[in-house]
Amino acid sequence: MNEYDSELIRTILTKENFAFVPTEAEADVVMLNTCSVREGANLKVYNRIHEIKRAAEGRPMLVGVLGCMATNFRQELLKNPRLAIDFIAGPDSYKKLPQLISEAMDSVSRGTGHGARKPFDVTLSEFETYSDIFPTNREGVNAWIAVSRGCDNFCTFCVVPYTRGRERSRAPENVVAEVRMLAEEGFKQVTFLGQNVNSYKYEGADFADLLDAASRVDGIERIRFTSPHPKDFPEKLLQRIAENPKICKHVHLPMQAGNSRILELMNRTYTQEEYLALVDKVRAIIPGVSLTTDVIVGFPSETDAEFEDTMKVMETVRFDNAFIFNYSERPMTAAAKKFPDDVTDAQKKARITRLNDRQKQISLEQNEVHIGRVEEVLIEGPTSKSDAIMQGRTDGNKLTVVPAGDLAKNQLVKVKITGASPTVLRGEVI
Ligand code: SF4
């Protein structure tokens, strides 16, 4: 979402005659677009600000902080004299950036120093979707498109509803117009983005309708989406994914925990049994679907026995891949206010290691199933290690490497899978 937002910001500022330079050493204004979902993000950003200021070597330069941290750490960012930040803007205030930058420049040129009164806007909107602005400078073979912003779910561990505000969706005609523009630029794949992407709703249209409408755009061959919530997978949506060849057969189903008491404390609104029933339904309606998940270990008060429930669910479902994190407290969240972070670091470490080790084995076995099959792969470009090897992704989002031959980026090719590791498939173009 932040990559998408950075391009959105570039488009807003370019229209106002700002120019972009390749390195911060050449810049008059440097902006850091931030996220505070993970622990330590603020410290990384503070270090980065010091680096940028050092590199400027006394040359006049404005530094702004944008995104979630602007909302979440506003007081510290504005008041900490060591940071010397000149302006801040939250995720719903990007259209005001030209004004904020100009106010910050005025303040410096008036000789009141870097931000005697620092301009800022961190207002969270119930309406801003940037619907009329299409980012124009995308790279790679996939184009992200934000179809909604914010989230109403208030999972107790998550800061997003506080930093990005309430959920709102873009009009489908705007989203489809953006897809059409991207197809004309040559993109074959788009990925729809939203904090709770599948709860998309705009007047009479739901997420399944939006996917369908986008799939009718000529030139678009693949549509992906992230990140969905398990509560928003009605049968209609699953049927559309199954029936529409352009919608990739990959469903990310964030589980977070396998124990119903912990799920309730997390406010995830489903039990272990309901989650497993959904997995069965997804697999019944979309045969061969690739399933991935997110898991948090060591949520406050999680016992060893409750962690074993998570292990059991991982064993039962056998996800293709899982993104596993230790619980860490986020300021402002309900969990931070209500639940002491009482699972020790050693317990968290032991649990995450066990889960990761087991998942690695399962991922390998799930990937080996593909050996001998023919998969369609969208080529992304050479691997970081060798120009002689190209990498791309299957419909199920599995990273696949093939000999480069005369392959080019953005080509869709048929690949016979010949080998597998836990993270990569190997194959040959046929
Ligand atoms: S659904 Fe996702 S973004 Fe929304 S509160 Fe829960 S974890 Fe955060």
User: What's the CATH class label of the largest domain?
Assistant: Alpha Beta
Structural category: alpha/beta
Q: How many whole angstroms does the radius of gyration measure? A: 23 Å
CATH fold-level topology of the largest domain: Transcription Regulator spoIIAA
Biggest beta sheet attributes: 5 strands, mixed, barrel
Rough outline = globular
Cα separation of the termini: 35 Å
Question: How confident is the prediction overall: mean pLDDT?
Answer: 94
Q: What's the CATH architecture name of the largest domain?
A: 2-Layer Sandwich
Write the layout of secondary structure elements.
Elements: H1 2-15, E1 29-34, H2 41-56, E2 62-67, H3 68-72, H4 74-79, E3 87-89, H5 97-112, E4 120-121, E5 142-146, E6 148-149, H6 160-163, E7 168-169, H7 172-185, E8 189-193, E9 201-202, E10 205-206, H8 207-215, E11 222-226, H9 235-243, E12 250-252, H10 260-265, H11 272-285, E13 290-297, H12 304-317, E14 321-326, H13 334-338, H14 345-368, E15 374-382, E16 389-394, E17 399-403, E18 412-420, E19 425-429
Parallel strand pairs: 1-2, 2-3, 3-4, 5-8, 8-11, 12-13, 13-14, 17-19
Antiparallel strand pairs: 6-7, 9-10, 15-16, 15-18, 16-17, 18-19
Helix pairs in contact: 8-9, 12-14
Bound molecules: iron/sulfur cluster.
Iron/sulfur cluster (SF4) binds at residues 151, 153-155, 158, 160-161, 195-196, 229.
